[in-house]
Each structure stands twice: as C-alpha cells, then as structure tokens.
Design brief:
- About 35% of the residues lie in helices and about 20% in strands.
- The longest helix has 19 residues.
- It has three domains: about 90 residues, Rossmann fold; about 200 residues, UDP-N-acetylmuramoyl-L-alanine:D-glutamate ligase (3-Layer(aba) Sandwich); about 140 residues, Mur ligase, C-terminal domain (Protein-Tyrosine Phosphatase, Chain A, Alpha-Beta Complex).
- A nine-stranded mixed beta sheet has the order 6-7-5-8-9-10-11-12-13, covered by helices on one side. A six-stranded mixed beta sheet has the order 14-15-19-16-17-18, sandwiched between helices. Strands 2-1-3-4 form a four-stranded parallel beta sheet, sandwiched between helices.
C-alpha cells in the first residue's frame, strides 16, 4: 500500500515536537493528512502553528486518530499514550515510518541498526565513514530528513526510546554493543530497558545478521539461555576466542566467521584503549556482513580517530595525560573507560539519573583518587567512601586543579580522566557543552605551566 493511500485524509497526532516531531510533520507536508500536534511544553509549538493544529482533548477524542507518532523520550506511561493504548490506537514512530517508506519502494538499500548502552555512536560513525554515508537516528541526523534514494546503506543509531516503539522495522544487520543500567527514570526497570534494546532483532530473519558483544554478561546470558533470534549471530570479543566468531587479540583481528583469516592492525592512539578495540572489531564485523572486503575495511578504519567527548585524548601537561570522556553519562560508560587504564585519577559527578555508583568500587586498585562534582557528588561519595579515596569539589575547575596537583605530588604522573558517570543537566545544556568546558580548563592549565 502506498503511504499516500494509507494516510490519505486520516487524522494523525504527533506527540513531542522536537527535532523528530518536526521531521514527521515535514514528511507529510505534501500529503493530504490531517495533522495535530501535542507537546507537554505548549510554548514549543504555539509559535509554529495556529491553535487549530493543537490537540485539545476537550475538542477532539484520542480515539479519532488513525495513528499517533511518538518522539523519542515520550514514555509509554505518558497520559496520552496510555489512553491510546487502551483504545487500541496505532502507535508509531519516525523509525517505523521510515520502514514503511522503504517497504513501498523497490530498493536494494541495506539497513544497519546499532544499539547499546555505550559505544553505539562511535560504532555508527566508524561504519558510516567506511560506507561514505552519514549515521542517522539517535546520532542526531533525523532519518526522515535523509531519505536519499542513491545511498546504498542506511546506518541508524537506535536508542532504547526509539526501540521501545518498534513494530515492523527490520535491519539487515543489527548490532548490540552492550546493555547495562541506564535510563531507569524512563523505563522504570532494567528488564524493561533490556527488552527495548532486544527489539532491534525481533523482526530479523535467517537472511539477516545479529552482531553481539559476548564480553557483555547481560547479552551473553540472555542469548545463551533464551535465544529466540532468527538472524545469524556473530559473536564478538576482545577477551574470548571463538571457533565461529570474530575477536581481537594483541593488535590482530581473527575472523573465524567469514574469511577464517587473521588481520594485523596498525597501532595507534585509538586502539590503545580496550573499549575501542571492541568497537573496531564490531565495526569490522558489520562491514564484512555488508559485503566489503576485509583489507579495504581495515585501510579505511585505520584512519578513524574517535569522536569528541568519547574518551578523547586532549594531550599531556608535564607528561600527565588528560582524557575528556564527557559522553559517559552513566556508570557503565565510566567503568568501561576506567578499564583502559592501569592507574588513573578520576573526575566524576553531575546530574543524577537514579543509578547506584557502587560499581566504581571494583576499581579500587585502579583509581588513585576520585574528585567529585555536581549535584550528585555527595551521593557518589556515600557509595565509594569505604573503598576509594575521594574529595568533593565546588566545581569542575577545582576538581581539575586538585587532580593535577595530586598527579604531580605522587611523582607517578598518573593520567587524569574526566568521566562523569552522570548526565550534564545540573550545570550544562549537554554533554558536549560540558566536555568543551573541560577542554577549555585543560588549555588554561597548559598555559599556566608553559
């Protein structure tokens, strides 16, 4: 069925009028569709539309709508979504609309879907850089604004919010990088969050590939106990050896799935970090699954230097290395970063997401001292006080100064890692703004001691 026929003169409601909501509206621009908008913040939409476009429950029933399109971050517990569910109203998303659009076109374009608690943006960009396209979806480039008919591959980063509303979307290659506690303020339980992530593979069949990080205990346990995935599974690791899988060891990639060959990699700053070794292996595997030659993939991936704010190496001051990992907005991301160091001084803290920080105690032999900032600094302190030396600081500037002094005073010149394990919204608009501020502070110290 053509989309123009499917939605012709139908009433649809867009819930959430941010970037995604606007892209859905734009998609239907030249079609005869009756569109209504709802956003909990009325100021966001009132300057864009006449009042007749606003959804008002006093004037229109929720049961009048053919479909409700939900923006990422709108919970299933939202009052309108709960009412729509009770009335059996179809609930959809921009990802589903993209899939419907693809299904109506005779195209051989492949879809690579990437999800995970951490690492998905890096993996998406690595794959995209080799395929000479741009990552879409949660990466920041809305998928409906980039329906390029000439592209051979769609690389889509998918958050748990987007996957929560998956019905028919089916990637040819799906990737799950890891699944750890995150967004529990939205999903309520880890089980709900886990189920949303696993949705990426629910419509795949035996012709498709599912790439899984088997170093992640949650993923390994689930797929070994309850493997109802129909796609062909490719196991990935930088710890284990697989007779049928792909793994990284001693700066080599061993492909025991497609080519049964070993590939030597060039040593660089990116591959010095353990989680990047895993990201590299995952991207390599996905590109093999997409039909590219191994040597061609390695040649392209060797040029990848990483993303800003993802364990970004800023440089050295008096032989002390500084790392900006502002993208680490949850505890598992910070733990992943810490695993790349033998010894490190940690700066953490920010806006609270309801997580426990006890996991940090496992690194008592790695973290020399933790300097804590932000609204949850004292909460972190309570979790780590018995195992990790720590100090609560007034702000990020003070934390960095104390970290630098500590590293100098030990005589060991330990690296300094800014990895907040927290959201940024206590003091910053985004993790990018927070990371940029940390980089500014780093430059200030470098000027002082130059």
């Amino acid at each position: 069925m053509e989309l123009k026929t499917k939605y012709y003169k139908k009433d649809i409601l867009i819930v959430g009028f941010g970037k995604t909501g606007k892209s859905i509206l734009k998609f239907f621009k030249d079609q005869k569709v009756n569109i209504f908008i709802h956003d909990d913040n009325l100021d966001i939409i009132k300057n864009h539309f006449k009042s007749k476009n606003f959804f008002n429950e006093k004037e229109k029933k929720i049961s009048d709508f053919f479909t409700i399109f939900v923006s990422p971050g709108i919970s299933k517990n939202h009052k309108l979504i709960k009412k729509a569910t009770k009335k059996n109203i179809r609930i959809s998303s921009d990802i589903e609309l993209f899939w419907e659009n693809q299904s109506t076109r005779s195209t051989k374009q492949s879809i690579l879907g990437i999800t995970g608690t951490n690492g998905k943006s890096t993996i998406a960009l690595m794959i995209s850089s080799v395929l000479k396209t741009q990552p879409l979806g949660n990466f920041g480039n809305t998928i409906l604004d980039n329906l390029d008919e000439k592209t051979k591959h769609f690389v889509i980063e998918l958050s748990s919010f987007q996957l929560d509303y998956i019905n028919n979307f089916k990637p040819n290659i799906s990737i799950i990088s890891n699944i750890n506690n995150d967004h529990l303020n939205y999903h309520k339980t880890f089980d709900n969050y886990f189920k949303a992530k696993i949705n990426i593979t629910k419509n795949q069949d035996k012709e498709d590939f599912l790439i899984l990080n088997y170093d992640d205990k949650n993923i390994k346990n689930y797929f070994e106990k309850k493997n109802d995935a129909k796609a062909e599974i490719i196991k990935i690791s930088n710890k284990s050896i697989f007779s049928k899988g792909i793994y990284y060891k001693n700066n080599n990639i061993y492909d025991n799935f497609f080519t049964n060959k070993k590939y030597s990699l060039k040593e660089n700053n990116f591959l010095k970090l353990k989680h990047n070794q895993l990201n590299y292996t995952i991207a390599f595997s996905a590109l093999l699954a997409a039909g590219l030659e191994a040597n061609e993939i390695i040649k392209s991936l060797n040029e990848f230097e990483g993303l800003p704010h993802r364990l970004e190496f800023l440089g050295k001051i008096k032989q002390i290395s500084f790392y900006n990992d502002s993208k680490a907005t949850n505890v598992s991301a910070t733990c992943s970063a810490i695993r790349s160091f033998k010894k490190v001084i940690l700066i953490a803290g920010g806006s609270d997401k309801g997580e426990s920080f006890k996991e940090l105690n496992k690194f008592s032999n790695v973290i020399i001292k933790a300097y804590l900032v932000g609204e949850n600094a004292n909460k972190i302190k309570k979790c780590i006080n018995r195992r990790l030396p720590n100090k609560v600081c007034e702000n990020l500037e003070e934390a960095l100064e104390w970290s630098y002094k500590k590293s100098i005073s030990t005589g060991k010149l330990y690296p300094i890692l800014f990895s907040p394990a927290s959201a940024s919204f206590d003091n910053y608009e985004s993790y990018q703004e927070r990371g940029d501020y940390f980089k500014k502070l780093f430059k200030n110290i470098r000027k002082k001691v130059a």
